[in-house]
Amino acid sequence: MKREIKFGERLVGEGHPALIVAEIGINHNGDVNIAKRLIDSAVHAGVDAVKFQKRTPELCVPPEQRNQMRETPWGYITYLEYRNHIEFDESAYREIDIHCKQRGIPWFASVWDEPSVDFLDKFDIPCYKIPSASLTDHALLHHLCKTGKPLILSTGMSTMDQIRDAVQEIGEENLLITHATSTYPCEPSELNLRMIQTLRVNFTCPIGYSGHEVGLIPSVVAVALGACLVERHITLDRAMWGGDQAASVEPGGFERLVKYIRVIEQSLGDGIKRVYESELPSLYKLRRIP
Prior knowledge:
The protein is of the alpha/beta class. The chain is built from twelve helices and twelve strands. It is globular, with a radius of gyration of 21 Å.
């Protein structure tokens, strides 16, 4: 059985180019114009899709954290107020949807709760992403399965048993699993890229990589290890305000990332040894004994 899922009009999985996703997430800081600039930067870099995050703060923020105060660009406010400031409403997502269509790039989002799934159902997005934080929320998993759309499951902060339980709830037919470590930014010693191979052994669905490291090399290596999707956060400037900015890639870096991934895909080959036509001049010139 071939490991692949349908993503819009294309297939993602073995034998297909890696799907490169620029996660805008919440790096827009609640500003639609910043979101549009990030979309434009992602398009210029040559990525295949952009991703946002959608949650209902009143459901997703634990009660003990709601009234915690923090410094933000909107002043010294509660954490719940902050979460509401960076959530886009329907009119904002309509603008984003139109802008993505104009730029010819698909978008989708991580969904943190059931109302967010219903909210995004108004848009023709190609799939839903299950964030690592929601991997154990089986009610949300069931709700997502009812949409009939492909699901991408992120596995940060999770044990193998928890991953198996989530996959059992979802089924593997319309699923892609991404290896992730939920530290922002993540030290190289905790990236554990060989988990990509472990997931490939344990599951029959496509396996991807959601990276939060500083730099580009691990994300390229992930493709060499079999990742058919690579997702990295994108930012206009890593010094911008926000918790995800430091683990993000700036526009110039994203251009290089796309280039490096496409080069490594060409370089992997099929593992069958052959003598290439380009080698023949060297063969005739240098080999003394046939």
